Amino acid sequence: AIPQYMMKHYGMKNPTVQLFFRSVLPVPLFALLSAFSLFVVRSEEFENGIQVFDSNGNAVGMSQKAGLKAVTETATSRAVLIGTTTVVPNLLISFLRRTKFIQGRPLLLAPLRHITAALVFGLMIPVSFSLFPHAAKVQNKNLEEEIQALTADTHLYYHRGL
After folding, report:
1. Dihedral-angle region of residue 113 (phi above 0 means left; psi in -120 to 50 means alpha; beta otherwise)
2. Which sequence spans correspond to the domains of the chain?
3. Chain centroid, CA 27 distance in Å
4. In which element (H, E) is residue 138 found?
5. Sign of the dihedral through C-alpha 131, 135, 141, 142
6. 3-state secondary structure of 139
7. DSSP symbol at 107
8. Which long-range contacts (CB under 8 A, 24 or more apart) does 87-92 make?
9. How many beta carbons lie within 10 A of that of residue 28, not counting itself?
10. According to the model, what pLDDT value does residue 103 have?
11. pLDDT tens-digit profile of 95-133?
12. How many Å apart are CA 101 and CA 120, to the nearest integer?
């Protein structure tokens, strides 16, 4: 909606600019919006902190720095998931539009785009979930001083969520 509004509002008639605003710009905007919405929804985790554990699995305390790291990692994996899911179908459709087969059957483009998007999304879910470990390790020295004082372990663990 934002690229369309900008094109209308500023009267952008150049075909190259229109191609950029219709094809290229929405992908990073959509990925960024997905990451931003995750930050908003999970803001409590980096404001109040998340539970960190020692090597034996005992709770040590609540860490805001671990919470921010967890939310950032999850937002990054979400942006990769959404970004890839939108880029691959667009690239495939751009390629297929040039083939004689599709030029003779242009009604196939919409179903191919949807099928490709569903397939890429399904394949990217395990990839995006595995970008960062769910039970992540963080050095004790990178956390708050209160947490550092509670344990002698050099590394602590936290669950980053999905």
Report:
1. alpha
2. 2-87+132-159
3. 12
4. strand 135-139
5. positive
6. strand
7. G
8. 87/27, 88/116, 88/117, 88/120, 89/113, 89/116, 89/117, 89/120, 90/23, 90/27, 92/116
9. 13
10. 92
11. 999 999 999 999 999 999 999 999 999 999 999 999 998
12. 23
